[in-house]
Amino acid sequence: MNKTIRFFYVIFVFAAVMYSCQNQKNVSDADMNNPFFSEWNTPHGVPPFDEIKEEHFLPAIKEGIKQQEAEVKAIVESSEEPTFENTIMAYDKSGDLLTKVNGVFGPLNSANTNDNMQAIAREISPLMTQHRDNISMNPGLFNKINSVYEKRNELNLNAEQMRATEKYYQDFVRSGANLSAEDQAKLRAYNEELSKLSLQFGENLLAETNRNFKLVIENKEDLAGLSEDVIARAADDAKAVGEDGKWVFTLAKPSMIPFLQYAENRDLREKLYNGYFMRGDNDNEFDNKEVIKKVVKLRDQKAKLLGFDNYAEYIIDVNMAKTPEAVYDFLAKLWEPALVMAKQDVQEMQQIIDKEGGNFKLASWDWWYYSEKLRKQKFDLDEAEIKPYFSLDNAKKGIFYVVENLYGLKFEKRDWPTYHEEAEVYEVLEANGSPLGVLYMDFHPRDGKRVGAWSTSFRSATYRNGERITRIGSIVMNFTRPSGESPALLSFDEVSTFFHEFGHALHGLFADGPYDRTAGSVPRDFVELPSQIMENWAAEPEVLKVYATHYKTGEPIPDELIAKLEKSGTFNQGFETGEFVAAALLDMDYHTTANTDISDVRAFEKASMDKIGLIPEFIPRYRSTYFGHIFSGGYSAGYYVYYWAGVLDTDAFYAFKETGDLFNPEVAAKFRTLLEKCGSDEGMEVYKKFRGKEPSIEPYLEKKGLL
What we know:
By secondary structure, the chain is of the alpha+beta class. The protein is 53% helix and 6% strand.
């Protein structure tokens, strides 16, 4: 997924691990038909999706809570002196059943939901919030953890044990363990309400995107400018919703973006784009403005209760950036040159409009259409020329080629249980044939799948009784569908998205550490490094020659087209960077505002954008009412992290380029070590072990054409 649409991961999901059969003794015989209460005798223990029913989730969640409560109680009531083993490690390994259930429910509720699943989520959410608070505010448990923490330097702990101890102590303090009983009660109320509001925001957005808008076209003349494959997919979409003989365009990016890029009918472009940017802001039952007001105020109250000036300060305190001021400073370095570039593009696109006799000023719904004309004018490059070389199968071929050459991995497609007929499952093998894990891939939009692209897991890599249990990962996208006799032909943005999410998947597959709390765990503004570095290989000529072949002729992409792609690499960066930074600054403003009693969300957003001088020709990448990253996706006060990690990934890729070998085995081995051991230290320390130095922002600005 391109940075414009990605949704990094499903934060709401717990990492899934194998369920220990010793806990089954606590389950009643009446519940033994529930597959969550049994060992899964499937390849690598993948979930038996054909056996799991909706009615199984809630009882299993409740039993999982009960079991973890018993495990915590045993830690608290132990008469032994608190040690790493009987306290930190015991807590680290608790909650297997709960993790197992959440590891299935969370991904399914994002990728394959329905009204019943959403209703179950509304029941589960307060239960889980209360359970987490019961643990994090358990004075007996915190006293035990605090005891180990205070004497940690005397216990001969190794580095991994020290890291786990310190992180758990930090977690408990940040979750209110040191608050008075009265303040803990307030925090519990805040957390419960926030969990409900997050679900509500996401459900509203899903409805507004997938159900509540479609552009139905009846006259073929209104399709002027669109390619045959786009028209064919629109006819397929119309047939799917009972509009045979017509053409339907939706707010899913693979449907909307080609229409905005090529449809000649300006009024219809405006209608479709208005449907997109008014999501959650239509004063109907799915409106998100009141949700936002409540969320912003509650988050601020929570932060202040925990001793921070605002919610951004609370969040960023454990990130690499450390302070909101550092984030604002970083974003300013991107915003200023991006705005200059965007204004220049506006002038050039307006010249095209005027030359064509258009009697109007460029508007936000015009940007895609006229930027394509400008791209053609400047570089003689049309995206329609590129797409025939980027079938979905070709993109998979390219990714597998890169990963095999970097790390020796093989991906074998298997006929194993899946949660949807469109989801593919692969066994991931090391160069020597030993299994590394399992990866599901789910490519196309559908009702019940949220927008964007993300990486998650049904089970994280972990250790139990000294044995490494492999990851069962998943990457979920919303790519262009096949149409007629044409395969799924991806835009290059979609190809980059695929490489991006695959990088997240590799991070999860490689993550290796003895403790669940620290294995693979990195700061939020580090986590996009493993994904974004993969995007670099997607555009390298050496790699393009391998996988970008014409879907009809099989001919590799010509050098001339590669050269055009390279020359246009920084094209439209004023817009792409500008709309991203505008959204990141809007996020920061919401979470640093001194007045959290926001009376008018639209007015707040406008004031935020006016402050930075946002031009009317484009809007922030996410307007408030559909900014799922920050109001339902775990990136609150953290949308900036994609570009922060961009500095890291640019520098890290240079480590390969400097050797003259894109697949340099020594550098690849060091980067794999970074992915395996990234939870063992602070983010910058881990990065410096790989690179030998801290990165600077200049190479990233140069890469984006912003210098």
